[in-house]
Structure formats: C-alpha cells, structure tokens
Design brief:
Elements (H helix, E strand, L loop, with lengths): L1 H12 L6 H7 L33 H10 L8 H11 L4 H5 L4 H27 L11 H13 L12 E2 L4 E2 L2
Antiparallel strand pairs: 1-2
Helix pairs in contact: 3-4
Length: 174
C-alpha cells in the first residue's frame, strides 16, 4: 500500500509517471517535486536547487520533526531546523558552490602528460632519428638557399619576410 501512496503522491506533483524501477532506486525517500527532466532523482545543483526527492529517507525522528514543521516555526529550535534541512538537502548552496580544489589535480596531471611528451620527444630525437638519415632540405645550406629563393620571389612584401629585407643593400633592414 505504501508504494501506491508514493506513486499517487508523485502524480500529484508532476505530470510524469513513475515506474516501479524508480521506486526501487529511491527507496523510502519522499517524492516532493518534478525534478530535472521529470526524473525523480537527487542532485545538489546550483542551476536546479530543488531536487525531486528528499536527500534522506523518512525515519521516525524525521517524521516527528515534519509534524512539528507544519506548526509554528518559532517553536522549532535551530538544531531541529538544521536537521529538517539536512533531511531534505545534502549540501547547502554555499557548500555546493564552494571551490573543491580539483583544478590543482587537473593542472598537475596536465603537466605530467606534457613532461612525458617532452621526454618522449627527446628520446626520439636522440635515439631514433639519425641526422644522416634526414632529408637534404634539413641542412643549413638548404634552408639558407630556401630563404634566398623566398626573398628573390618577394614573398609577403607588405608585412612578411620581404618587407624586412633591403633589396638595394642586400641585407636585413635595421
């Protein structure tokens, strides 16, 4: 009978239907709203601060506090108000939005992977590639000849390489 009450209670708050599979997952927790996309789930989120189900299941202590809650709130002590809040929510919004320090591990692992990549590059350069096996275009003479050809063809004359070359004096501009 309690399962039927929970389904009926959920349908009073939402147009979505709840499957028995969800009932098994949420256990004895009370369905109090529509939830994200109509799903009865609990998440502490800043953008959706009111979850569909309560954080903790209804215990006898919580049931007594819920009955007191229906009366005057001035009769409740601060500890009782906090207990009611913690029964409905796992964290306060301040706790949810507090920095976790996770960025430190992300930066640390990023630096580890960058250093591994640099070590791999150094290993390959020292032990895998041999300078004798490189193409002729990698030699200093070939690169200087390529620079001369680019200057002769006046490549990028406005802001590029040719704009920095003095063709009359045959040297770089000062």
């Amino acid at each position: 009978m309690s399962m039927l009450r929970r389904v009926t209670a959920f349908r009073n708050y939402s147009s979505a239907s709840i499957s028995p599979n969800w009932l098994r997952k949420i256990g004895e927790r009370e369905v109090v709203g529509h939830g994200v996309n109509g799903q009865p789930s609990y998440q502490d989120r800043i953008d959706f601060p009111l979850p569909a189900i309560r954080f903790k299941p209804n215990t006898p202590d919580i049931k007594i506090l819920r009955e007191k809650e229906k009366g005057d709130w001035k009769q409740l002590s601060l500890a009782e108000k906090k207990a009611l809040y913690r029964a409905s929510f796992g964290q306060t919004l301040a706790e949810v939005s507090a920095p976790t320090g996770e960025w430190k591990s992300v930066v640390g692992w990023g630096l580890v992977f960058i250093s591994l990549g640099l070590w791999l590059q150094m290993y390959i350069k020292l032990f895998v590639y041999d300078e004798r096996d490189l193409p002729k275009s990698f030699s200093l003479e070939s690169r200087q000849a390529q620079l001369r050809r680019m200057l002769a063809f006046r490549i990028a004359p406005v802001t590029g390489l040719s704009s920095k070359w003095d063709y009359e004096k045959d040297e770089w501009k000062k």
